[in-house]
Write a structure and sequence with these properties.
disordered C terminus; 317 residues; disordered N terminus; globular; 7-stranded antiparallel β-sheet; single chain
């Protein structure tokens, strides 16, 4: 509005003076230059506030929205070792459904539900809520999350879609060294500042690394426990025996998820046996069970500052 009024005033001044031919050249050479310069200053002063107001108005036009997405993986594996007969497997490994909702540009909800191996039955397959959290983005350099979060332990743990790794299956180290899709209840802070990304997550649970003996070699395994002693995830870090390696299968290990020291861990009952891996199955099962007892002992005695010889004897037995 200021610019339009200035333009009209400029036109009137120029027209009235232009009728006086004696002053025509003077106006063009001097006064009009100052007037044009002054007008450009007014433009700068007016345009900047208008731009800021326009940005605020754009924020007011934000519309809440719900997003639905996902992905799936269908795997075909053909494995042949030496002169042994090849194994062929066709498996719809996972189906992931993403649901999110944004109330404002700052407040949103994000979730991810995963179904593995087509179904959940008789210890096969798994259905889990992998992510479900509220997200508050205060600014690029400071944002907050709270709910079921992925641990900031590795790139693949947070971004594990098939396009992020070249192999059919996820890399071995993301299954046996750094667990993939390791998640839990917690809070997180993240942001981007001066060329650096950062993320800090405080999450429930405990990871214990241990060894048990198979037939002749140690088996290194990892158990992730929640605060109440429930098993959240298990993984075989290194299997050294020439046979019985099926115990490293995540499908077999998934049956330990949700168990605690109050369960029996009985092979052929709660835990499936594996043909050709009887010793390894027994050793790993007992090893995982002992870690749940160790965590129960910690909760009952170390945290309360109480220890007793009876409890120690019970642990040894």
């Amino acid at each position: 509005m200021v610019y339009v009024k200035n333009a009209e005033i400029n036109k009137k001044i120029y027209t009235s003076i232009d009728n006086e031919s004696h002053y025509h050249q003077i106006i063009h050479g001097g006064w009009m230059q100052h007037l044009t310069h002054l007008q450009s200053i007014f433009l700068c002063l007016v345009i900047v506030p208008l731009h800021l107001l326009a940005q605020d108005e754009l924020d007011d036009f934000f519309e809440p929205k719900t997003s639905i997405g996902g992905y799936g993986e269908l795997h075909y594996n053909f494995n042949k070792v030496g002169n042994n007969a090849p194994t062929k497997t066709l498996d719809f490994h996972r189906f992931v459904l993403y649901v999110g909702h944004a109330w404002t540009e700052k407040w949103s909800f994000r979730s991810e539900i995963e179904l593995e191996h087509n179904l959940v039955k008789d210890g096969q397959g798994i259905l889990q809520l992998e992510q479900a959290f509220l997200n508050y983005q205060q600014a690029d350099y400071l944002s907050f999350q709270a709910g079921v979060l992925l641990v900031a332990s590795s790139f693949i743990n947070e971004y594990h879609e098939p396009v992020f790794f070249p192999s059919v299956e996820r890399p071995e180290y993301t299954k046996f060294i750094i667990p993939t899709t390791w998640f839990g209840n917690g809070i997180g802070v993240y942001g981007f500042y001066s060329g650096f990304d950062y993320r800090l997550v405080i999450i429930e649970g405990l990871a214990i690394l241990d060894n048990v003996y198979g037939k002749s070699q140690p088996i290194t395994f990892l158990v992730i426990l929640s605060a109440d002693g429930t098993i959240k995830k298990t993984a075989i870090i290194r299997y050294r025996e020439p046979y019985g390696g099926a115990v490293a299968s995540q499908r077999w290990l998934n049956q330990f998820t949700g168990l605690s020291s109050s369960d029996k861990f009985s092979v052929n009952q709660e835990i499936d046996a594996i043909s050709g891996a009887t010793i390894s199955v027994g050793s790993v099962t007992v090893g995982i069970y002992k870690l749940t007892l160790l965590w129960e002992y910690y909760l009952k005695n170390i945290q309360t500052g109480c220890t007793s010889s009876e409890t120690l004897v019970e642990m040894e037995n």
